Amino acid sequence: MGLRNEQLRWQLAKGLVQALHLERLASRYSRTTVMAVFNFVNGGLSIALVSFVALVTQEAFIFPSLGATAFILFYVPLAQPASPRNTLCGHLIGASAGLLSLYLFGLQQHPSAFTTGVDLARVGAASLSLGLTSCLMVILRVAHPPAGATALIVSLGLMPDPAQLPILMAGVGLLLTHAFIMNRLAGIPYPIWSQDTAAPATRVPLQ
């Protein structure tokens, strides 16, 4: 499995190098260097895109756990946790569990834990949000590790307003759109929804 993931990551980087007619990079530098640069560019571009939308709209399209999501989408794009289904459902579960925890512990109107510190109610909200997120992702088979961070972001009070939930999910959607375009451009059959329903795509031969 580790070798297959390594081959897929190289295929992704190499496919984009060929699509952009930058073959000299692949011949001049090592595979690790090309993949590192590829992830640097794509990770930076994806977050820059979401951040720019946040700048223009002054809404919370960008939040910390998107960084971990971006890494998964470009490092292991064919892993099930990187699929749109897992990514969208995972973050939705995490954010919803965080909001529920805030209300159950009466913290919906309180400043964030980073402002006032952590008390027993905040400990309970954080614990419940992460536990509930982990449980539901397993039951629903939509594991996406960064969603655990989303649950904590909400339950610690950084995004306590329910009106922010659609904006949060729109940020995830923007990131997925970028990942879909870049992966398909490289010839990787990145799925439209779930890995089981991935549409055929041209594969770049490995050398």
UniProtKB/TrEMBL annotation:
InterPro entries per record: HPP, TM_HPP
Domain HPP transmembrane region: 34-191
Annotated TM spans: 34-54, 60-76, 88-105, 163-181
Keywords from the UniProt entry: Membrane, Transmembrane, Transmembrane helix
Protein name: HPP family
Organism: Marinobacter subterrani
Lineage: Bacteria, Pseudomonadati, Pseudomonadota, Gammaproteobacteria, Pseudomonadales
